[in-house]
C-alpha cells in the first residue's frame, strides 16, 4: 500500500443552497435525515482504507468542525499514523482567503509536505456518491501518471456551465479540458453525452508541489485546478482520465452535486421511494456519521383513537428521537428530535433536527431548517405567492424553504393570532 494523503476541499459557500447555508458550509448541510453531505466522501475514504485526511475549511466551518469531531475522530488512531485533521485557513503564505481550489491546497502545502506522501488524493467535500478510491490510485500507478482525473459520463445538457469537460484518446489519456463550457464537446460517437470531471484528482506528490508553486507565480491565474492547472499540464505530462466505478450497486451510476435547492430536495425525495437510486442500506459500503444518543422514533395515538388523530409515517425516513404524535407524515425525511403534533399533515418535505410542527398545521413541498417551530394551524406550501410574501425562500421548482432564526416565522404566528381574533 502506497503512502496516500487525502485532501478534502470543504470550504465552499454553497450560495445556491441558501438559506440552508446561511449558518453552515455546504458540506455540513444535513442529508437523508441522519447524515451530512461530507459524510459520503469521508465514508468513501474510510471504506477505501485511506486513513490520512486533511479537511480544508473556510466559510462558516463551526458546524462542520463539530460534526467531524463528534462523529469521525474515533475511527482513527494517531499512534498508527492515522488521522483526520480539520484545517481552517492558516494564512502562512498569503493573507487572503482561498482564491481557488489550487490555491486552497497551495496555502496548506506546509501541512501536506510534512506528511511526506507519495501521492495526494484531492476530493470535493460536497458531492454524494460511493467510490473506491484505491481503484483510481491503482490505475494512476499502472499508467505511470503524473495526474489522474476522475471522469463521469454525463449528458451535454447536464454538463453545460456546470462541469469541467474532458476529451480523451482510446487509452484514456486526456487531450483536452474545458472548465464549465457553454457547449461541451461530445464523446465521439455519442453526440448527446460528454465526459465530465468529478473534481477528484490523484497527483504524484512531487508533481503536485511543482505545479502549485508554478501556478502561484502566475499573476493571471485563477489558481484553480480546472481552469488553470489541468489545462496547463495536458500534452507535456502524463495526464489520464479514470472512468467512475460506482460502489452503489445499482443499474445506473449514482453521483450527485446537490448544489441547488431543487436538486437537494429531489435527492432527498429519492431516498423515500420504494427502490431509491442511492442505496443507504448496503452493509458492504456503509455510510458513517455522528449518531447522537437518542431514543428510537415513536408513533402514538394509533389505537383507541377516532378520526385523524393517529401517528403515521408513510413512505418516509424517520430518525431517532422523533415523535409523530397523532399527525400524518407522507413521503418525508424527518431528522432527529422532530415533533409532529396531533392532526398535523406533512407531505413531500424535509424537516431538519428539532423541528416542531404544531397541531393542525399543513406543510407540503418544504424544507424546514433546524429547530424551527411551526405554529398551530399554519399552512405552508399550498400558496407559493403567500409564502413568498411571508419572506420565505422559494426555489425555482416551488419548494418552500424556512431557515433558522427566520423572522418570517413570527409572521406565521401573527397570522394565526389575527385569524383567531376575527
CATH T-level fold name of the largest domain: Spore Coat Polysaccharide Biosynthesis Protein SpsA, Chain A
Give the helix level as a range of percent.
Answer: 10-25%
Number of strands: 29
The radius of gyration over CA amounts to: 23 Å
* CATH-defined architecture of the largest domain: Alpha-Beta Complex
Please report the number of helical segments: 11
Would you tell me the overall average pLDDT?
Answer: 92
| Shape estimate | elongated
The CATH class label of the largest domain is Alpha Beta
Spans of at least 5 consecutive residues whose pLDDT stays below 50 are none
Termini separation: 74 Å
**Relative strand content:** 25-35%
Largest sheet: 9 strands, mixed
What is the SS-derived class? alpha/beta
CATH superfamily of the largest domain: Spore Coat Polysaccharide Biosynthesis Protein SpsA, Chain A
Amino acid at each position: 500500500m502506497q503512502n496516500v494523503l487525502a485532501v478534502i476541499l470543504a470550504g465552499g459557500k454553497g450560495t445556491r443552497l441558501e438559506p440552508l447555508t446561511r449558518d453552515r458550509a455546504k458540506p455540513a448541510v444535513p442529508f437523508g435525515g441522519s447524515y451530512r453531505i461530507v459524510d459520503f466522501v469521508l465514508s468513501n475514504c474510510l471504506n477505501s482504507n485511506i486513513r490520512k485526511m486533511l479537511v480544508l475549511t473556510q466559510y462558516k466551518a463551526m458546524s462542520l468542525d463539530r460534526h467531524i469531531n463528534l462523529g469521525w475522530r474515533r475511527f482513527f488512531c494517531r499512534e498508527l499514523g492515522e488521522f483526520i485533521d480539520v484545517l481552517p485557513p492558516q494564512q502562512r503564505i498569503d493573507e487572503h482567503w482561498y482564491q481557488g481550489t489550487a490555491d486552497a491546497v497551495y496555502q496548506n502545502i506546509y501541512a501536506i509536505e510534512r506528511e511526506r506522501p507519495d501521492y495526494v488524493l484531492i476530493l470535493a467535500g460536497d458531492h454524494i456518491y460511493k467510490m473506491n478510491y484505491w481503484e483510481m490510485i491503482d490505475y494512476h500507478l499502472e499508467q505511470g501518471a503524473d495526474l489522474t482525473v476522475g471522469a463521469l459520463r454525463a449528458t451535454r445538457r447536464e454538463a453545460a456551465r456546470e462541469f469541467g469537460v474532458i476529451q480523451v484518446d482510446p487509452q484514456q489519456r486526456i487531450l483536452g479540458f474545458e472548465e464549465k463550457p457553454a457547449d461541451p464537446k461530445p464523446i465521439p460517437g455519442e453526440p448527446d453525452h460528454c465526459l465530465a470531471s468529478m473534481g477528484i484528482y490523484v497527483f504524484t506528490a512531487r508533481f503536485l508541489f511543482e505545479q502549485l508553486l508554478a501556478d502561484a507565480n502566475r499573476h493571471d491565474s485563477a489558481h484553480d485546478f480546472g481552469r488553470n492547472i489541468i489545462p496547463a499540464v495536458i500534452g507535456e505530462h502524463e495526464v489520464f482520465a479514470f472512468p467512475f466505478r460506482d460502489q452503489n450497486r445499482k443499474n445506473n451510476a449514482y453521483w450527485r452535486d446537490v448544489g441547488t435547492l431543487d436538486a437537494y430536495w429531489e435527492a432527498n425525495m429519492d431516498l423515500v421511494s420504494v427502490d431509491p437510486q442511492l442505496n443507504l442500506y448496503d452493509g458492504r459500503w456503509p455510510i458513517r456519521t455522528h449518531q447522537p444518543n437518542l431514543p428510537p422514533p415513536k408513533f402514538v395515538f394509533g389505537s383507541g383513537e377516532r378520526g385523524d388523530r393517529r401517528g403515521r409515517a408513510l413512505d418516509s425516513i424517520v430518525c431517532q428521537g422523533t415523535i409523530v404524535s397523532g399527525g400524518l407524515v407522507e413521503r418525508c425525511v424527518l431528522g432527529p428530535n422532530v415533533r409532529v403534533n396531533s392532526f398535523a399533515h406533512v407531505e413531500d418535505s424535509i424537516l431538519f433536527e428539532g423541528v416542531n410542527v404544531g397541531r393542525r398545521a399543513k406543510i407540503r413541498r418544504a424544507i424546514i431548517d433546524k429547530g424551527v417551530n411551526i405554529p398551530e394551524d399554519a399552512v405552508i406550501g399550498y400558496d407559493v405567492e403567500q409564502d413568498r410574501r411571508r419572506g420565505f425562500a422559494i426555489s425555482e421548482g416551488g419548494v418552500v424553504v424556512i431557515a433558522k432564526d427566520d423572522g418570517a416565522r413570527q409572521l406565521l404566528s401573527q397570522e394565526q393570532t389575527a385569524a383567531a381574533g376575527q
